[in-house]
Give the backbone structure.
Amino acid sequence: MPENLRRLPPLDLIKGFDAAARHANITQAAAELFLTQSAVSRQIKALEEHLGVTLFHRRARGLALTARGERYHAAVTEALKLLRAAADQVRGEPQTLTVTTTPGIASLWLIPRLAEFARRHRDIDVRISANYEAVDLEHKNIDFAIRYGSTKPPEGIWLFGERLRPVCSPALLNDPKRPLDRPEDLRHHVLLHLENLANGAPWGDWSIWFRSLGMADVEPAGLLRFERYDEVIAAAIAGQGVAPGAFPLLRRQVREGRLVTPFKGSIASPRGYYLLAAAASRERPAARDFAAWVLREAGRHKPSAEDPVATQSEEASGPTGDAPLS
């Protein structure tokens, strides 16, 4: 065997190391690989002997990568992605991209637009992981994250800002027995309340909106509480009450007539939406295509005089000068 091949560790050892590094736990790595814990431990030990370095600190509650282990895992992650992409291309199979985001962004903004991306890129399979966990993209083998917050990390790409205004179904707006002409009329209606403020939406309890108008909190006809923003909006579309609306996230629902905005004016939010890409994914053509598409979709949110949903300054100012992927 040539010397350059002898220096390469067996792929099974690398797979065991990668799973253990991502989970930081032998038991979970073994479950992923359908192996016993002792088998994965032997793989890690064999790889360390092959390389002549210690890759993990063994601790009572799991594993922690050493400094050399972290550097090696970053290279292994990128190499495995390249191998998978090459295998997919040889087989003629779609290239896979995994995107993590919140359930609200996924159901209200990203998923309704994915059909267009799929038509243009039939060779790319996009998989959505919708949850509130801010995962480490590199360690979890995830290509992109679309996140929401008040601070964009340096490596993030700004998508669009946010403004807030109440929304409801057309049926509620047209109910003559319960007017909805002024904010004070909310006392006739059920308010839909976002209960789980840990998801990063501090405006979900309505108080910030009332304070911005110089009003005391209105005593509504009722209150329905939800833990996810997509559930709040589903209830609003179903006519169950009035919801705090985040724009431009809900612009499609308003344009399609499923939601209406009963009052003029909106409140600027200090938060916005941005895209993060895993370092190992940035050179993949499929990842570049996806990032460019997301940025084009985000760019469509620039307000204009012809847009009945847009308001002046609807896009909260965010960092500028971001390149798609470099």
